[in-house]
Fold these 2 entries.
Entry 1:
Amino acid sequence: MKLPTEINASSMADVAFLLLIFFLVTTTIDQDKGLTVRLPPMEFIEQNPQPIHKRNLIEIFINQDDALLVNDKDMKIEELSTFITSFVQNKEKLKTRPKTPKHAVISLQCDKQTSYNKYVEVHDVIKSAYHKMWDAQAQIMYQADYDALGSNDLRKSVRTAYPYKISEAEPF
């Protein structure tokens, strides 16, 4: 009696398929994370942008050494939030600052050599300054924290008092 010289490999394909399915199901794929920024809807209407009056503008520049220049003056990152809040609210009614918070615009520019971490840190400080103003406004309007407002309409009404206007130019 002669023994078969072949090995039955029909079940090998099944095993390989099951292993492939197992690895696909159990493997996690890292996803890139970035800044969450909500862009305004795209409009196809030709617009002539209105010039921004100097008194309404905070110019923040991050140079190649990660140093901050705010309105052409050196500033530490720890001072930025207080400066933004004071500038936007303009409680002293200074003529060098916006008449109302609705007029305030922040221009954020950086050098091509600016580190990504510094850019994100400055962006976070700007957003947190506005978040503090929104919290204070929510307390006045609804006696609740901004994050506790469940309705998007309530949040929108708070944000209309302090609109988040930021202009980010291309690095140079």
Entry 2:
Amino acid sequence: MRRLLPVVLGALVLASAASAATAPRVDFAKLPGLQNGAPPWGNDSQTLDSRLPHLGLHALLQEQLAFHVHQHLDLWVNGRKVAIPAEVGLDRFSFQPFITELHTHDGTGILHVESAQRRPYTLGQFFGEWGVRLSARCVGRYCGQLHWWVNGKERSGDPSRLVLVDHQEIAVALGRKPARVPHAYAWPAGY
């Protein structure tokens, strides 16, 4: 059993690295219709369909639940909390309404990955469909010192590359850090 543990842990590390390597990389410079104003930012469903081909997401007629996980996102820009809007990744107003594999239902900050297949989805895909640029230095039109955490542990690098897994508490702050970085989220029953 002792010999198996390093092999299993090594396999988990390799699987995680492989997921990150195969996860879509979002080129925000190619995304049409990014929001350039100050927060709060709307769900930007009006231009969502034009960004989907660049994000590796699809316009679905209904949710697919073969792969179903949730994350919670908190966001601050220059010391101010930014609301994560309801219905990011949903278009209810076009001729053919649709939902993507990665979306929000309400304004709680809960992200839903609901897909017909198990594959990596990233925080960059979520920000891309929201129409808000995210990089190692920028959120929307604001650039500077960017801090980000997963489950209360500070990370470095580009948060848009973060592969989304179940029950992550993700916090992103551009500029001043929040007084308290969340370590966990109180998930409602059924999540």
